[in-house]
Amino acid sequence: MQTPTLVIKFGGTSVGTADAMTRAVSIIADLHRKWPWLVVVTSALAGVTDRLLNEALQAAKHGRTEALEAAEAELFSHHHSIIAELLPNELAWPVEQEIKELLSLFVSLVRAIAVLGEATPRALDAVASLGERMSTRLLASACRAQGLAAEAVDATQLIVTDHRFQNAHPDFDATTKRVRTHLRPLLEAGRVPIITGFIGATPEGITTTLGRGGSDYSAAILGATLPAQEVWIYTDVDGVMTADPRLVPQARTLAEISYRELSELAYYGAKVVHPKTVRPAIEAGIGLRILNTFNPQHPGTRVVREKGEANSQGIGAVTAIRKQRLVTIDGRGMIGIPGVAARAFGAVASTGTSVPFITQASSEQSICFSIPAENVEHVLPALEHAFALELANRDIDRIWASEEIAIVTVVGDGMRETPGVAGKIFSALGQENINVWAIAHGSSDVSMSLVVALADMESAVRAIHRLIEEH
Ligand code: ADP
Ligand code: ASP
Ligand code: MG
Question: Which of 125, 269, 433, 436 shows its CA 20 to 30 Å from the CA of 44?
């Protein structure tokens, strides 16, 4: 029989203060008694990744580094405040030195970026990776201070990725081999590895990152390749909730959610787990749970293949993404042109833009889809280039982008079987005078997305949430 193996992941707030880290350490100690093979993945301390990247981007933009020393000092003092509270002197000193070294690397990288006046995705990944490289060293020492045989490990040794910096894709076969040779021996020796979330490396060893919020994905990748029986994501809320509690105070924790629902929810903006986390877990048949570091007794949310009868009625949860714009390609002459959609999405894809929402009028006179607002400046020229001939011939009248809009997504396995859900949603929005600009059913028919004006987003989410509350 396989040794019971559990991967747990702590988010930034779960390790962001001395109090939080104390809780994280006690969770680790507690779980290690029950799970002989325990792998810990951690994010950078809350706010650190933003700060690191912000300095790098400012340096690239303005060539200035005046604020760099202040940033270095603040980042040091954030880590130091935890070290001072949690570590005895003999453990404090070595970890302080390591953090100082990582921060001087940060300073050198940002100075180089300022000189070049450009921050390449590769350079940004080198900078962004430092947050996790610091937090793992700190958390490992805090565990050792409590008598645990913990060891900081950089995932650059374990997670092998392609060269897509800032959004790297793991090579599962290569990663499995590394996990066997580098991680299993630590576990066999009774150690608790404390592994950097968010980062990996190309086969040649150049640091990459898996995308913002990617530490959840790191945990799933390690869980799938070990393999572990379970992956538990520790965050700052009691689990996956019916809506973002910051937007809807009445939101409640879901005891169960299906893999499909969680995928859709995460993809459409619920920050609680990274959208890529779900797939490796399903494929490797691994149990997934979302739990609260600050309330570890709470059972949290269990992610399941099929939900029990009691939890599978109607709408399950609602989420939203802002900062999107709708792009429309209009033209009566489009009816006759073959492959317009394929060419349009090919042009969009060539800019590296993802398209979360697509609708097409049945008359084929227009295609409409949403893209992140910041990509419009690349996408419109790409489309104009792809359809230069059709625009010149007036087969396509115009290609244009709307103001910023929001996509509100309603998720629920039971929606298919529950008659009248769409009607209820529309009347709830109608009562609030919210106009729906476009709708689309999610690919897996457990979700429905609605485009609303940005200004209506919050009231739309709350209006739909009232339908969940009534249930
Ligand atoms: P971590 O640092 O632990 O990765 P994140 O901030 O990335 O934490 O994700 C947790 C946050 O996700 C919560 O504090 C909450 O505000 C937000 N959130 C958004 N939608 C949901 C939801 N449906 N359920 C739970 N939390 C959600
Ligand atoms: N620290 C990284 C970020 O802020 C990864 C994570 O927190 O999951 O994006
Ligand atoms: Mg997160």
Answer: 269
Q: Is the pLDDT of residue 312 over 70?
A: no
Q: Examine the domain organization and report whether 177 and 48 are in the same domain.
A: yes
323 and 185, same structural domain? Answer: no
The last residue of one of the domains, among 178, 212, 236, is: 236
pLDDT at 414: 77
Q: Which of 212, 237, 238, 293 to mutate to test the pocket of ligand 1 (most atoms within 8 A of CB)?
A: 237
Q: Is 244 in the pocket of ligand 1 (CB under 6 A)?
A: yes
Please report, as a single letter, which amino acid is at residue 274: H
Tens of pLDDT along 411-428? 998 787 777 888 899 999
Pocket test for ligand 1, best of 23, 27, 49, 244 (most atoms within 8 A of CB): 244
**Cα 364 to middle of ligand 1, angstroms:** 39
Question: What residues are in contact with ligand 2 under a 6 Å CB criterion?
Answer: 11-12, 43-44, 49, 131, 197-198, 212-215
Q: Are residues 327 and 440 in the same domain?
A: yes
Assess whether pLDDT exceeds 70 at residue 465.
yes
Q: Give residue 225's region: left, alpha or beta (phi > 0; psi -120 to 50).
A: alpha
Q: 199, 220, 236 — which closes off a domain? A: 236
Strand partners for 305: none
CA 470 to chain centre: 30
**What band does 362 get if pLDDT is binned at 50, 70 and 90?**
low
Q: Tell whether the model's pLDDT for residue 311 goes beyond 70.
A: no
The SS3 call for residue 283 is: helix
Residue span of the structural domain in which 205 resides: 5-236
DSSP string, 6-22: EEEEE-TGGGSSHHHHH
The yes-or-no verdict on residue 90 having pLDDT over 60 is yes
Measure 235 CA to ligand 1 centroid, in angstroms.
7
Instruction: Supply the pLDDT for residue 441.
Output: 78
Please indicate, yes or no, whether residues 228 and 329 belong to a single structural domain of this protein.
no
What band does 253 get if pLDDT is binned at 50, 70 and 90?
Answer: very high
Residue 147 lies in a domain: yes
Strands, E assignment, 204-250:
207-209, 230-235
Q: Give the ligand at the shortest distance from the Cα of 215.
A: 2
Encoded tokens for 212:
């913002």
- In CATH, what number is assigned to the domain containing residue 402? 3.30.2130.10
Considering the domain architecture, whether residues 355 and 452 belong to the same structural domain is answered as: yes
Determine, yes or no, domain membership for 310: no
Residue 184 CA to residue 186 CA, distance in Å, equals 5
Q: Which ligand is nearest to the CA of 237?
A: 1
Q: Are residues 200 and 96 in the same domain?
A: yes
Q: Is residue 354 part of a domain?
A: yes
pTM, 2 dp: 0.95
**Is 312 part of any domain?**
no
Find out whether the beta carbon of 240 lies less than 6 Å from any atom of ligand 1: yes
In angstroms and rounded to an integer, the radius of gyration of the C-alpha atoms of the chain is 24
Instruction: Give the residue, out of 124, 215, 231, 233, with the most ligand 2 atoms within 8 A of its beta carbon, to mutate for a pocket test.
Output: 215
Ligand 2 atom, smallest distance to 216 CA: 8
Residue 144 DSSP class: H
Ligand 3 geometric centre to CA of 273 (Å) = 6
